């Protein structure tokens, strides 16, 4: 049965087809490094003529670079194509109570620079925002890229953030509620995305951490602060009112003060900021009181995590935050408690992304936004690349 | 800047474009009833020639019916097109402890027949399956459609169902665990989808109940059994291991025995099956003991619902199950408790779908599967319609 009628497709339809093919070819090249034409034809499912044609356009518009390599024993060099990931950059910021961190990546997500600036909970709002600006500027300087090549900025911060990128609530920083992060960071027209820090840590784990093969995960943030965040179907789950995974009003959890179990076993002269680490070290050395304290702490954290697990049934629970570095003494009691509390215990892993995890998640958010703007279908033909294409 | 190169698209690309256009036109017609060509052109974004051509094909393949109506004062009748929803049917089954219900719909989801057959928890597995077969047959007979026009069957049942459509666990029916529902209902090659009954009730609320404008909802099933189910982003959230919204192992909830508060206030000679209804009636009449019992019941249910709400932050909480008919006395204390327990209280509504809600959700699931098979992109050209096209 013939599947085509006798008609000729209209010009508008062909333009749409063409734009679709541009995205398909670009995605095929990005997915496989530096593929040759035959590979792109195979991966895209398009005809060779169409692929050659789109490739020429994408090279002319500076999205792709053509590379030629002589194949041994043959006269003609093989042509392959590379996505020009250096055409633009994204910056991820982590604006916290004690530090501002920045990560700069190219469009492929490769980290080109990281910086950190210390602040304190008492740092005034204006100065914290200025620290963020300087962290961003430090990154571009260290990476040797002009600031205008930063196409998008993602920012994570403690507390609740609204859809407009303003901080609604932030218990850890006195004058932070009301800060207009999107307004400040996007003041020269740059694309800015703002989100809660635990949520961005969860996104980072799913995109480039220990949870890349899990579409659904719960992140348990364990550190000076505690928190939960959800990634479902590969996307951050923020909730209808931005309050997803906020268990603060549920009775019987009492996980937020649980850090006191750890603080109580360290000698009185150890500063508060170091006590938890000391408790973990003592537990590691077999100290009985410290091991009991870690077990109590784990029990309280497990109850909160189990609540989220029972509701969404994720494939993985990731232990994040500073205490993920004590995974060797924390994971075992955490897993034992979860086995008691969950009909299905998800796989349990500790983050390995370290202190930059929130900034990395913020960069992922910024890169997603760039992709969405530039590479999604129904956005018209891909533009010619200049220094600022977003 | 010209967006087209000088090349001619390959035949394969044109076939794909054609298939895409077929779906777009079919979706445009389905979305707007009986549109004229100009409307379809506007809604689809395609050119008129392409639309005319695809319409002719879809009429020839019996997906669409062309209708001509004379416009007053003009000579030429206006052509409009209607989706032939009567071409196929879907059946939704609710296989429960006390009854088997069936709903038969056309491809547009219009209900053509409903039936109910009584069973009991002690009914043997073989007989319960036979009751499901008879309920389905009764429906087709009542609607006057041949059984072969049933393209897909959805089935909801109590307990945990695995991906293969087998019952894994069913506390409410002694010999039900192990029942191969998909195998039994699909034995003559029919498309069969099986899911948990509370989940299908949630789907029904989102598609055709009180939650059609909410992409995210939590359903609180209140009745002889209790349960929770999630719809997120318009889709059932089953969880990575099929255990989403299963709070049975969390401590401190004790919502499952809460129905005893209601049972305790009815006179001793009232049969158990009628006691809750009697308690609600007494509360409605202002009886103080009954009102206290309803409040206690609502408090226990609210704690379970609040747990799910705190985790996923849905737009709406729907009170479903048989007790949704007591919404006039239940909603107020439920809402008051939720306000205490949730940082963000979602909108609270009672189901109005009645006893057929699970069967309706099952029919929705079956219709989704038909759409997915026939109408999704990348499935090749739409087939010519015969009695059995799935």
Which characteristics define this entry?
homodimer, Arc Repressor Mutant, subunit A, Nucleotidyltransferase, domain 5, disordered N terminus, 5-stranded mixed beta sheet, globular, 390 residues
Would you kindly provide a brief summary of this structure?
The structure is a homodimer of 390-residue chains. In chain A, 40% of the residues lie in helices and 21% in strands.
Explain what you see:
The structure is a homodimer of 390-residue chains. The first copy, chain A, is an alpha/beta fold and 390 residues long. Chain A is built from eleven helices and 14 strands. In chain A, the strands form four sheets. In chain A, strands 5-4-3-6-9 form a five-stranded mixed β-sheet. In chain A, α10 (327-341) links the parallel β13 and β14. Chain A starts with 10 loop residues before the first helix and ends in a 15-residue tail after the last helix. The model of chain A is unreliable at 1-8 (pLDDT under 50). At the A-B interface, α1, α3, β11 and α9 of A face α1, α3, β11 and α9 of B.
């Amino acid at each position: 049965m013939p599947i085509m009628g006798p008609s000729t497709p209209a010009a508008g339809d062909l333009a749409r087809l063409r734009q679709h093919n541009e995205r398909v070819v670009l995605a095929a090249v990005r997915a496989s490094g530096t593929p040759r034409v035959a590979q792109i034809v195979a991966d895209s499912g398009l005809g060779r003529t169409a692929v050659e044609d789109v490739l020429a356009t994408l090279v002319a518009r500076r999205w792709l670079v053509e590379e030629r390599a002589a194949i041994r024993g043959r006269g003609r060099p093989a042509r392959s194509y590379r996505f020009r990931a250096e055409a633009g950059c994204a910056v991820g910021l982590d604006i916290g109570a004690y530090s501002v961190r920045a990560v700069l990546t190219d469009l492929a997500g490769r980290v080109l620079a990281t910086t950190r600036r210390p602040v304190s909970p008492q740092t005034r709002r204006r100065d914290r925002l200025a620290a963020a600006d300087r962290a961003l500027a430090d990154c571009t300087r260290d990476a040797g890229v002009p600031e205008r090549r930063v196409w998008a900025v993602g920012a994570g911060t403690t507390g609740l953030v609204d859809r407009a990128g303003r901080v609604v609530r932030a218990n850890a920083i006195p004058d932070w509620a009301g800060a207009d992060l999107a307004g400040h960071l996007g003041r020269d027209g740059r694309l800015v995305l703002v989100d809660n820090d635990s949520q961005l840590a969860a996104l980072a784990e799913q995109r480039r951490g220990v949870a890349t093969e899990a579409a659904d995960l719960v992140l348990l943030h364990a550190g000076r602060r505690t928190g939960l965040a959800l990634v479902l179907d590969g996307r951050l789950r923020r909730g209808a009112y931005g309050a997803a995974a906020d268990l603060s009003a549920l009775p019987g959890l009492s996980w937020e003060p649980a850090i006191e179990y750890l603080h109580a076993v360290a000698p009185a002269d150890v500063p508060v900021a170091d006590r938890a680490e000391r408790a973990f070290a003592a537990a590691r050395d077999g100290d009985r009181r410290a091991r009991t304290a870690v077990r109590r702490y784990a029990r309280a954290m497990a109850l909160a995590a189990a609540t989220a697990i029972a509701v969404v049934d994720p494939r993985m629970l990731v232990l994040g935050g500073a205490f993920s570095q004590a995974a060797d003494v924390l994971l075992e009691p955490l897993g034992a408690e979860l086995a008691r509390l969950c009909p299905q215990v998800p796989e349990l892993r500790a983050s390995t992304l370290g202190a930059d995890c929130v900034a990395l998640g913020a960069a992922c958010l910024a890169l997603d936004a760039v992709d969405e703007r530039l590479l999604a279908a129904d956005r018209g033909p891909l533009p010619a690349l200049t220094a600022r294409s977003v």
